[in-house]
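Illustration 12: ABM domain-containing protein.
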Amino acid sequence: MTPLPPRLPDPGRADVTTVTVGSLFTGTAEGQRAALDALRAGVRDAEWPKGLLELSVLASDDGEALLSYGQWSGPAAARVWPGGGGWAELAVPYRIHRGAPAGPDAPSPGCVVTAAFDVDGPERQRHITDALLDAAEGVEPRPGAVSSHFHHSLDGTRVLNWAEWTSPEAHAEAVAGAALDDLYEIITGTPGVRALRGRYYLPADTFIG
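Figure caption equivalent — predicted structure in token form:
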């Protein structure tokens, strides 16, 4: 295992076939820092899983949660955080279905905004993803939006939109200015789709095998 300076993962990596995403509720900023310290110790002492290319750890800007993003070159060999530091959480395996990747002139991302949905099967996964991306193509680019990558869980029950923005403030301005209202109407009006809470995440740790 090799620690790197914190950075956001690249969802568009061509050598990645499976992604595992895990979350941990820490409650407070102090709990978040303690959990990060435990994770670092656990990863340092653990055997690196075969096929895991990179493990990114992100911290929510409100101090309440951590997120892991594991990128694998084949089927995920483990569904837990490597090491874990005593609080290993099950991670959900995904594949990227569709996205709106960053263009050549796009600004550098500074945070990730997650939007997750419980859905009633693979058909609903495809439907909500295609509806949101098709709708987004028909509106003006939003200042601060960099890219979007829709992940489908392998069991057909979850959709995760991994959206890169320049900053939490840029996304908050888009929300306040009603720039995302049309997309929210699609989400709330689609049967078999239930939105879960999203968060702003910033890079905290990056590890490679």
